[in-house]
Amino acid sequence: MLFAVMRGLSFLPLRLHYVNARVLAWVLMDVAGYRRQVLEANLKAAMPGLDRQERLKIMKDYYRNIADLIAEFVWCVGKDGALLEKKGFVRLEQAGILEELHKKGRGVMCLCSHSGNWEMYPAAVDLYSSGGEFVKSDFATTYKRLRNDFWEAVTLKARTYGKCDPGQFVDSRSILRYMVKHKDDGKIYFFLVDQYPYQTPYYIGEFFGLPTDAMMGAANLAERFAMPVIYLHNIRVGRGRYVLRPQKICDDASVMGADAMMKQYFKILEKDVLDNPSGWLWSHKRWKNIEGMYPRKRKKKH
User: Fold this and answer.
1) CB within 8 A of 20, min separation 6: which ones?
2) HSE of 130 in the Cβ direction (CA atoms, 13 Å)?
3) Cα–Cα distance between 19 and 78 in angstroms, integer?
4) CA angle 238, 242, 246 (to 5 degrees)
5) Burial (CB count <10 Å: 0-12, 13-18, 19+), residue 78
6) Are 194 and 211 in contact (CB under 8 A)?
7) Are β-strands 202-207 and 210-214 bridged in parallel, bridged antiparallel, or unpaired?
8) Where are the beta strands (DSSP E) in 85-187?
9) 196 closest CA partner among 68, 70, 293
10) For the chain, the helix, strand and coil percentages under 3-state DSSP, each to the nearest 5
11) pLDDT digit string (tens) for 180-198?
12) What is the per-residue pLDDT across 39-89, written as a single tens digit (0 to 9) for each?
């Protein structure tokens, strides 16, 4: 029933969704204070050269972007990548980079980030396959399954309805088994790798001048299967306007090595964030490895 409501709302003009998004942004920032302390801690540590007013502006823009992303998520339900491109919502640039690497036959590892509108990665499958070089089954998107079965069903259906088959989403906990099974199929894998590590942290060096632990699963798999690797830029060029642009990191991860690969990934990501500071997911605890970085949760009184 909830999905049916979302499907119905998707027929409303995007500009109307944005009207509601402005209200939602105010609620998130000023009423609920959603993860505001985390956001403030991250910005203050990563961008110490900014004064309070400059950080406040980034925060306001950030909450507006998050609210817009939620509005766009609903509006995109039922719209495939080709339709989103036709409406000017998303544009794919330099598609030939992925085509060239895919022809090597070893598959391709696409390292992605929580920049721009990261819910659009399923739409990228349509954009690539519409050119005729790929079919949708060439792609697999890894994700972390939600604990709540209800929201898992709703979000997965919303992400895949009219975009790609739900079977192309692979739970990160079973990705190794999946890749071994499909090692000769030349699959293209999308990995979001800019969160704090779920399991074993790996120190990657400095990111924004801060000691940073990385998620190494995608890099280790790429090295193990000798895959070419790209960074997929997800750039917000305006309200309701996004660009997806691949950038090659290496031709063979087994030669470059997982450590060097991830250092290059964070170097590119840092430039993306500096170019558009409010477009990255600042509200997650990216630097849990730094003692005292985030306020401790207050224990509830019984």
Assistant:
1) 71
2) 17
3) 21
4) 135
5) middle
6) no
7) antiparallel
8) 90-92, 108-112, 139-143, 169-171
9) 293
10) 50, 20, 35
11) 999 999 999 999 999 999 8
12) 999 999 999 999 999 999 999 999 999 999 999 999 988 888 888 888 999
Distance CA 178, CA 139 (A): 12
pLDDT bracket for residue 283 (50, 70, 90): very high
- Distance, in Å, from the CA atom of 101 to the CA atom of 107, rounded to the nearest integer, reads 8
* Strand 210-214 relative to strand 229-238, pairing: unpaired
pTM of the model: 0.92
Query: CA dihedral in degrees (141, 171, 114, 89; nearest 10)?
Result: 40
Of 36, 41, 157, 175, which Cα lies nearest the Cα of 107?
Answer: 175
Residue 11: exposure state from Cβ atoms within 10 A (0-12, 13-18, ≥19)? exposed
Neighbours of 243 (CB within 10 A): 15
Q: Are 127 and 90 in contact (CB under 8 A)?
A: yes
**How far apart (Å, rounded) are the C-alpha atoms in residues 234 and 232?**
6
Across the beta sheet with 108-112, the strand order is 90-92, 241-250, 229-238, 108-112, 188-192, 139-143, 169-171
- Tokens for 137? 């089954």
What tens digit of pLDDT does each residue of 107-144 get? Answer: 999 999 999 999 888 778 888 887 778 888 899 999 88
Q: Tell me which DSSP letter residue 172 carries.
A: G
pLDDT, residue 224, reads: 97
- Total number of residues shown for the chain: 302
Q: At what angle do helices 258-275 and 217-224 cross, to 10 degrees?
A: 130
In a 3-state reduction of DSSP, which class is residue 202? Answer: strand
Contacts of 183 (CB under 8 A, 6+ apart): 107, 225
Structural contact between residues 106 and 227, judged by C-beta atoms closer than 8 angstroms: yes
Contact at 8 Å (CB) between 145 and 103? no
Tokens of 175: 């990705």
